[in-house]
Design brief:
The chain is α+β, with helices and mostly antiparallel strands. The protein is about 30% helix and about 20% strand. The protein has two domains: about 160 residues; about 80 residues, no CATH class. Helix 7 runs antiparallel to helix 8. It starts with a helix and ends with a helix.
Length: about 250
């Protein structure tokens, strides 16, 4: 059985598989596509666990939002056993409720976190993805090994430590401050100038149009999908909420 805190939180949904293997989220109440509206109205597509089970108990998903933190370990199981990278990551993560993903090759870990609003949206690293919002996980209720039956409650410091696992060593050395925080516009622009050297063709215009524009089309779409729209450059106080996706983008486009 899923941990009680998940069962009692109305963040559930269903999904269906496309012919190419993509998982498309469904609103359990209507059977229609979920999350079609903006992120501020995302909750409208969520349902109770009971509603999701009535729709399809074999295709369940859980939408991550405050106070939940989700960790997705990709391709860390081979024939049911941890790879060396999987063992390394699991040893570094606090013990919490852990499921095997539908593919049988990945793991999903769920946490609770205080000061959730101060966390980045996501970090994508080597075989590990960490999410605090704007992401849903397939939910299998297939526990991995001797996983505990509860969600570990993390301090903000511990949660940031988990996000740090998704950042490669060279990024830690080069991007000296990726932690969420309150950035002045000047500090924000200085950081973006420093990032230019990592991405051929990367540019930005601090005109109040967030995510920054122009950037390469793929980058703009990638960031826009994952980040809330900020109204003005004065919203750089929220820079921590999108610094991590930029780090992930740098990783994949260097």
């Amino acid at each position: 059985m899923f941990p009680e805190v998940l069962l009692k939180t109305p963040n559930w949904l269903n999904y269906f598989l496309t012919s190419d293997g993509r998982k498309v989220p469904l609103d359990s109440k209507t059977g229609r596509g979920a999350f079609k509206k903006n992120s501020g109205e995302r909750a409208a597509s969520r349902s109770t666990y009971e509603e999701a089970c009535r729709r399809n108990p074999r295709r369940l998903g859980f939408d991550l939002d405050e106070p939940f933190l989700g960790v997705d370990l990709d391709h860390v199981l081979e024939a049911g056993k941890l790879t060396s990278r999987g063992a390394e990551l699991l040893a570094a993560l606090p013990k919490t409720y852990t499921e095997i993903s539908p593919s049988g090759t990945g793991l999903h870990l769920y946490y609770l976190c205080g000061n959730h609003h101060k966390l980045p949206n996501l970090v994508i690293g080597d075989a590990i993805e960490i999410y605090s919002r704007l992401r849903w996980f397939t939910a299998t209720n297939v526990k991995f090994g001797n996983s505990v039956d509860f969600l570990k409650l993390l301090s903000e410091k511990d949660a940031r430590g988990i996000f740090a696992l998704g950042i490669l060593p060279e990024e830690k050395q080069t991007l000296t401050s990726i932690e969420p925080g309150f950035w002045t516009t000047a500090a924000l622009l200085a950081r973006l100038e420093a990032w230019k050297k990592f991405i051929p063709g990367f540019d930005f215009r601090p005109d109040g149009n967030w995510p920054f524009n122009p950037v390469p089309r793929a980058a703009g779409l990638r960031l826009a999908r994952r980040q809330p729209a900020f109204a003005t450059a004065n919203a750089s106080a929220a820079f921590g909420n999108w610094s991590s996706p930029v780090v992930g983008f740098i990783r994949s486009h260097r």
